[in-house]
Structures are given as C-alpha cells and as structure tokens.
Amino acid sequence: MRAPDTTSDTALLIEAAALAGEIALRYFRVDHRVWDKADGAGPVTEADLAVDAMLRSHLIGARPGYGWLSEETADDAARLDAERCFIIDPIDGTRAFISGEVTWAHSLAVAEAGRVVAAVVAMPAKKAVYAAARGAGATRNGKPLHVSAAAGPDDVTIVTARPNLAPHLWPGGLPRHARHYRPSLAYRLALVGEGRYDAMVTFRDTWEWDIAAGALIVEEAGGTVTDRLGAPLRFNTPGRLAAGTLAANPALHHGLIQRILS
C-alpha cells in the first residue's frame, strides 16, 4: 500500500496535537501526580502519560504500519524496520508544565529513511501551532514562516541554555550575542523557524523526540539544522540521540560552525 503523502501526515499530526492539548490543559495548573524517572532522567507527570497513551492510540490507529518512538513509551526495535516512524514527545518542557509556565509543547513528527517529513510543535497554553511538511514550507497558525536574515556570526540572538555559550566551546571565538531561553527544545527550534531568534544551539547529546519536529520546521522555513559539528541529523536511529543541535539560516549556520570547529 502506498504511504500517505507528507501533507496528509502533517494534517494528522495537527489533529492529534489538538486532542493532546485538550488532555494536557485539564492537568495544567491543577494538582496532579508528579514523580522522577529512573537514572536522573527528569520528572514525569500524569499528563505526560495520558497524552502519550492517546497519541499512540490515535496515530497508530490511523497509520498502523508506522513505527513508534516516544519519550514516554518503552522502546521497541521494530520501529527500525518501519518505512515511516512517529517520533513523539508528549510534553516537551515538563518542568515548565509543572511550574505553570506556558512554554511547554507537544512535539510530533514523522520520519522516513532517517529524515523528518512531517512535523508539528503545538503550544496549547499559547494557542500556537507550528507545522511543516517536507517540500511544502512551515507555518505558525497557518501563516508562512521564514528564518531571520542575520548574517552574523556576531551581533545575533541565540535561544539556548547558558552553558552552551561557555567560551571553551567556541575555539574560534564566542559570538557577540543576546541570549534568550525557553525550556522546550522543540519550541526553541520553532522560534528560530519563525525568525524570532537568529539561532539555536545545544552542545549536549539530544534525544530525537526533543528536536525532530522543530528541525523540520526550521528547514522548511529556509534554515539549516545539523548536529553540533555540522553533520546532518538522522532520525529513527538505534541510539535515539543526536550529537547536539545547531539551527540558523544557512549563512549564519556556516559562520557559527566555523567558530565551533576552529
């Protein structure tokens, strides 16, 4: 059977994200169970698991041949043999969700042959939905997105955690910058796709579910997204991790990589 086109998959992700938002908002800013995962993997809540269960039922119900990779589901190596695979973070920015901040997201993506082909980053508490289909552009609430035109690598805005701007990580010289921060990696990438900030960087190894959807949004908004050393990102991999992430418009991305690799 022929696989659905990428715009059809994106429409499915938008539909699923709306349902996820309805569930998550029922738990938002009200008392609910929160506990820590094993091995220092961070907190998880009732909301994370409720959203994950609904998304798996809804998405696999619609695409039974797709694989499944989610932060909140035990990994199944069968996904590696699937032609397409859902890559899901039910709530990206769980700490922000717990503290009542609005900067958490549902990060939903479909990968095929190592590349993301459909993506949604939904922000229910902000009433914002970022979406992209490979070859069809990226949008926020239906309006087209484009990355900033900042030439850089100096005098740029970077959305990142403070440790990523430690001078020793930039042998070619730390860019002159204004730093901004959002707890959700998916949202950071979406903001670069929107042109709100010029670049996003994280040097730490990064789980695929945190960056898959946002990476396609940046790319379809005209940007470049790689790992911290400039290598292409690959998704639905056995290890599920990327070697950091750097996103910006192509010229700025090149300049930042030169500062990192010098």
TrEMBL record:
Its cofactor is Mg(2+). The keyword Magnesium applies. Keywords: Hydrolase, Magnesium, Metal-binding. InterPro entries: Inositol_monoP_metal-BS (IPR020583), Inositol_monophosphatase-like (IPR000760), Inositol_monophosphatase_CS (IPR020550). It comes from the Bacteria. The keyword Metal-binding applies. One of its GO terms (molecular function) is metal ion binding. Gene3D superfamilies: 3.40.190.80, Fructose-1,6-Bisphosphatase, subunit A, domain 1. One of its GO terms (biological process) is signal transduction. Mg(2+) binds at E71, D89, I91, D92, D210. Belongs to the inositol monophosphatase superfamily. This is Myo-inositol-1(Or 4)-monophosphatase.
